[in-house]
Amino acid sequence: MQNVTEKQINYKESTIKRNKKKSSSKLMKAFIYLCLILFTLSILIPLGWSILASFKHKSEFYGSPWALPKGFYLENFTNAFIKSHMGEYFLNSVFVTALALIILLVIAIPAAYVLSRFNFKSKKIINTLFAAGLFINVNYIVVPIFLLILDADKAIKQIFALPLAMTVFLDNKIVLALVYASTALPFTIYLLSNYLRTLPRAYEEAATIDGCTYFQTLIKVIIPMAKPSIITVILFQFLAFWNEYIIALTLLPNSSKTLPVGLLNLMQVQKAATDYGAMYAGLVIVMIPTIILYILVQKQLTEGMTVGGIKE
């Protein structure tokens, strides 16, 4: 009888513990879902409000801010894109961002391949230098970059006897793209090299047996296998280059601006003119490419962050 009662007591205690664990896990899940819902709303509500506000007439902003637009006032986008030169700024940003990404990938992919798959004497030193670059905030070195470019401009003018008012490296979109790519190299090489280390060497050995050179192996084997990681880099750096403001403002003081700098000018002008519809239309023009790109590469981005290849 005592054994039976002890078993019953133990069974009741274990049941109570299981019920407590289930209830605590349910509470934890409910708390996590609540946080995720609040976080999602904190993003979707301002985004949706900005899109709706871009279609409103400027007279509608004096009423309820949460009211839906009475119609689609597309003239806001015309004013922002043409009259406020946002179309020109948009093309500048497309050119600078695309060129910076091309330069970055052309340098970073071979560098990451060499650092992750080959052994040589200075490998540790180079890896240490790239790792140290991760801790440098680009915004803190804008002034030294500007002074270096200014000194290079002065040297070129003296050598070739160019007019003093002429600029070679300053107000140059190609130089801006080079600065973007160079400042993004440490993070990109770090991310790609860590991913490439997880890839099995059997594929490279098979390519070598088939007579492929190192360059052919990189193009035909490594890059296709590292596609998720490369897409992750493209998305991260596209967002960084597209939304960058401080370097673009510093290195393009007189020439046509990029989109973030032009957007600030648009906001200042439209606030003075109380044309808030055109101002929000400019915001939407800036946001649309990033939203479209994220939708297109969302699946590949998830694979790049979670899949690390098959380890040997």
UniProtKB/TrEMBL annotation:
InterPro entries: BP-dep_ABC_trans_perm, MetI-like, MetI-like_sf. The keyword Transmembrane applies. Keywords: Cell membrane, Membrane, Transmembrane, Transmembrane helix, Transport. Pfam families: BPD_transp_1. Coiled coil: none annotated. The keyword Transport applies. The chain crosses the membrane at residues 30-52, 89-116, 128-150, 174-192, 230-252, 277-297. It comes from the Bacteria. Belongs to the binding-protein-dependent transport system permease family. This is Carbohydrate ABC transporter permease. It comes from Clostridium saudiense.
